[in-house]
Amino acid sequence: PKKGIENLLSACKLLAQKKRLSWSLTIAGTGTPHYTEGNRSTVHELQLAKHVRMPGEVQGFSKRRLLEDSDVGVVPSYIENFGMVVAEALAHGVPVIASTGTPWRHVEKCGCGLFVENDPESLALAIVKISRMPLRQMGKLGRDWMATDFSWDRSAGKMMDTYRELAASRHAN
Q: Which of its termini does the chain have fewer beta carbons within 10 Å around, N or C?
């Protein structure tokens, strides 16, 4: 439930009503059976079944292919401590729309996405807005950002720096 999928589905209903653009949505991942069935029911209630696919958990090559075939990643979470899906999308060159419940406010500053409120209207407007933006260029900027700040070498270097600081402070006391 913390993923906010119901708001994204309501945003998609707004898009379908206004017929502003052609779109499809793939909701990948799992949740409790109750939550997943609730989302499936919402898809049918909102008459979005021809636009929305819910394949469940996607891993390995299938996940890579899903990301490579995506134009935009939308993460409407109410709260996330990191939001790995955002990092994965950006690393694959997919621009993102991240909600303010995620720690990804820098997507706008880095030019690789939008950072918006998690309500249907804001999400729908962001989807329309990003559809008119240079997605390939944004994807490249996101990939570059991930390679610069979140690569294994960079992360290991940060961890080593932290250990050095801890060791130095322990010897200073």
A: C
Q: Which residues partner with 97 through β-bridges?
A: 74, 114
The neighbouring-strand residues paired with 116 are 99
For 3-61, what is the HEC assignment? Answer: CCHHHHHHHHHHHHHHCCCCCCEEEECCCCHHHHHHHHHHHHHCCCCCCEEEEECCCHH
Cα–Cα distance for residue pair 109/89, rounded to 1 Å: 17
Look up the pTM and report it.
0.88
Instruction: Enter the tokens of residue 26.
Output: 């793939």
Q: What is the mean pLDDT of each run of 10 residues along the chain (173 residues)?
A: 95 91 94 94 97 96 96 96 94 97 96 98 97 98 94 83 87 75
By DSSP bridging, strand 113-116 and strand 73-75 are unpaired
pLDDT confidence of residue 145? 97
> Which tokens in the block code for residue 43?
């898809």
Residue among 57, 68, 107 nearest 87 (CA): 107
Length of the chain: 173
Chain position carrying tokens 């996405």: 113
Q: Please tell me what DSSP assigns to residue 100.
A: T
